[in-house]
TrEMBL record:
It is a single-pass type II membrane protein. GO terms for cellular component: Golgi membrane. GO terms for biological process: protein O-linked glycosylation. Belongs to the glycosyltransferase 31 family. GO terms for molecular function: hexosyltransferase activity. The chain crosses the membrane at residues 38-56. This is Hexosyltransferase. It is an enzyme of class 2 (transferase). Its EC number is 2.4.1.-. It comes from Microctonus hyperodae. Its main location: Golgi. It is found in: Golgi apparatus membrane.
Length: 405
C-alpha cells in the first residue's frame, strides 16, 4: 500500500513529459531536469504498471478519487498546462456546462415515457441507468431482481423498476429500443446523446422525469445495469428510517481527489473542477433519495455547472448547493460481493454484475438450506468501512479518513 501511494504523485510528471516535447513548458526547469524527469518517469511507470492496472480496474463506478493527489510539489503549473491541452472528450474547455442547454427544463424531452410507472403511486421507484446497447443486462435484471415476484409487497409498498436511456445515432438500436419498450413498457428514453461522458445528463434527466411524472412517490433509487439490488433488504432498510424527508443515502465516499491523468477513465481537468477535494458524495452504483430531495437536487442541478462524473455532481456538488447531506448506509457498497448466500442476503447492492452473474446471485439467494452467523458478513466491504463510512478505495488512505462527516 505504501508503494501504491507513490503512483498519484508520479503520474502528473509522467503525463507532462508526454506532452512536453512541443511546448516551452520546461523552459524554467532546464534540459537536464527534463531528462532526469523523463528517465525517472519511465522507471516509475514501468515499476508501477502492474500495480496501477489492478488499482484502476478495481475502482468502482464513475469517479472516485483513486487517491489521485494534486501533489502539492509542482503540480499546479503542470495541471494548468494540462488544462489547456488535455481536453475532456465531449466537454472541452469551450463547451457550455449550463444544464439548461441540455435538459430543456421547460419542454418535454421524453421520447418514451411509460405512463403506468406512477399509477398506483410507487413507494420506491428504481431507475436503472442503462446504455442503449445493453439489452442483455436489462433482460437479466427483468428476469431476476426486478421480476414481478420479487417486487411484490403489501398494498402500500408499490415498487417499480424502469430503465433510463438516452438516444443512440444507430437506427438499428433505436428501432430495437422501440420494440423492447413495446414488449415490456419499462423504458424511459430522453432526448440527449447517450455516451459515457454524458452520464451526468442521464442522471439529471432522471430527476427531471421523476419530478415531472412521479412527484408524489416516496423514494427514488438511481442505479446502473451492472448492479444487483437486494430489493427486500432495501425496503427493510427504508422502512426502518425514522424520517422520509431529506433522505440521501448510499455508499459515502469522502476526501476523494480529482484525477489529473488524462488517460484515466475518471480524468477531471482543472477547468471542470478546480477544488482540491470533491465534496463527500455517494457512489453512483446505487443511491436512494426521498422525492423532496430529488426535486431540490434537480433545481440545484439547473444552477450548477456540469461535472461529467455523475455521482460527484449529483450527490456531491448539487447536494452541497441544495444544502443536503449525503449519508452512508453500510448495505450499499461499490465493491463486487462474494457469491455467498449470507453476504448477499445482508447486502443491498452488489456491483460489477454481468448478466450471467446476475442469474447466479438470483439462484444463490433462492437457497433455503443455509443459516447465517454474524461472522459471515462481507469482509471486503467491512474493511473499506471506517466507523461505518467508506473513505474511498484503498488508495485513499490514512491521511484522508479523519474528516468524513
Ligand atoms: C474554443 O473556441 C475558440 C473560438 O470560439 C476556437 O478557436 C477554439 O478552437 C476552441 N477550442 C476548443 C478546444 O474547442
Ligand atoms: C420548448 O418549447 C417552446 C414552446 O413550445 C418552444 O418555443 C421551444 O423552441 C422549445 N425548445 C426546445 C429546445 O425544443
Ligand atoms: C412527453 O412526450 C412523450 C412522448 O411524446 C409522451 O409520451 C409523454 O406523455 C409526454 N409527457 C408529458 C409530461 O407531457
Ligand atoms: C448498430 O447496432 C447494431 C446492433 O448492435 C450493430 O450490429 C451495427 O453495427 C450498428 N451500426 C452502426 C452503424 O454502428
Ligand atoms: C430514432 O429516434 C429518432 C428520435 O426519437 C426518431 O425520430 C426515429 O424515428 C428513430 N428511428 C427509428 C428507426 O426508430
Ligand atoms: C451529450 O449530449 C448532448 C445533447 O444531446 C450532445 O449535444 C453532446 O454531444 C453529448 N456529449 C457527449 C460527450 O456525448
Ligand atoms: C461475467 O463475470 C464473471 C466474473 O466476473 C466472468 O467470469 C464471466 O466471464 C463474465 N461473463 C460474461 C458473459 O461477460
Ligand atoms: C444448499 O442447497 C444447494 C442446492 O439447492 C446446494 O448446491 C448447496 O451445496 C447446499 N448448501 C449447503 C450448505 O448445504
Amino acid at each position: 500500500m505504501e508503494r501504491i501511494r507513490l503512483l498519484p504523485m508520479e503520474l502528473p510528471s509522467a503525463t507532462s513529459i508526454n506532452n512536453g516535447n512541443n511546448t516551452s513548458n520546461s523552459n524554467n526547469r532546464g534540459r537536464t531536469s527534463f531528462i532526469r524527469r523523463l528517465g525517472l518517469g519511465c522507471i516509475v511507470l514501468a515499476a508501477l504498471g502492474l500495480l496501477y492496472v489492478p488499482a484502476y480496474h478495481s475502482a468502482q463506478g464513475p469517479a472516485f478519487g483513486i487517491g489521485e493527489t494534486s501533489s502539492p510539489a509542482g503540480s499546479s503549473g503542470d495541471s494548468h498546462f494540462l488544462a489547456s491541452v488535455a481536453q475532456l472528450p465531449g466537454w472541452t474547455f469551450n463547451t457550455s456546462r449550463n444544464l439548461h442547454l441540455y435538459i430543456h427544463p421547460e419542454n418535454n424531452t421524453s421520447i418514451l415515457s411509460p405512463n403506468e410507472l406512477c399509477t398506483p403511486l410507487p413507494y420506491l421507484l428504481i431507475i436503472v441507468c442503462s446504455a442503449v446497447a445493453n439489452e442483455r443486462a436489462r433482460s437479466a435484471i427483468r428476469n431476476t431482481w426486478a421480476s414481478e415476484e420479487n417486487l411484490h409487497y403489501d398494498a402500500e409498498t408499490n415498487i417499480k423498476v424502469a430503465f433510463l436511456l438516452g438516444q443512440s445515432d444507430n437506427d438499428t438500436l433505436n428501432a430495437s429500443i422501440m420494440e423492447e419498450n413495446y414488449e415490456y413498457g419499462d423504458i424511459i428514453q430522453e432526448k440527449f446523446h447517450d455516451t459515457y461522458n454524458n452520464l451526468t445528463l442521464k442522471s439529471v434527466m432522471m430527476l427531471k422525469w421523476v419530478t415531472t411524472n412521479c412527484p408524489h412517490a416516496t423514494y427514488l433509487m438511481k442505479t446502473d445495469d451492472d448492479m444487483y439490488i437486494n430489493v427486500e433488504g432495501l425496503v427493510k432498510a427504508l422502512k426502518l428510517r425514522p424520517h422520509i424527508k431529506g433522505s440521501l443515502i448510499g455508499s459515502l465516499i469522502c476526501n476523494a481527489r480529482p484525477i489529473s491523468d488524462p488517460k484515466n477513465k475518471w480524468y477531471t481537468p482543472k477547468y471542470m473542477f478546480s477544488e482540491k477535494i470533491y465534496p463527500n458524495y455517494l457512489s453512483g452504483t446505487g443511491y436512494v433519495m426521498s422525492l423532496d430531495v430529488a426535486s431540490k437536487l434537480y433545481h440545484a442541478a439547473l444552477e450548477t455547472p456540469l461535472l461529467h462524473l455523475e455521482d460527484v455532481y449529483i450527490t456531491g456538488l448539487c447536494a452541497r448547493n441544495a444544502k443536503l447531506r449525503p449519508i452512508n448506509h453500510p448495505g450499499f457498497s461499490y465493491v463486487p460481493r462474494k457469491l455467498d448466500y449470507c453476504v448477499l442476503k445482508s447486502a443491498i447492492t452488489a456491483h460489477k454484475v454481468n448478466s450471467s452473474v446476475m442469474y447466479s446471485i438470483w439462484n444463490k439467494l433462492k437457497e433455503t438450506n443455509v443459516t447465517c452467523t454474524t461472522a459471515s458478513t462481507d469482509k471486503k466491504a467491512v474493511k473499506l468501512n471506517r466507523r461505518g463510512r467508506n473513505v474511498g478505495y484503498y488508495l485513499v488512505k490514512k491521511r484522508s479518513n479523519s474528516r468524513c462527516t
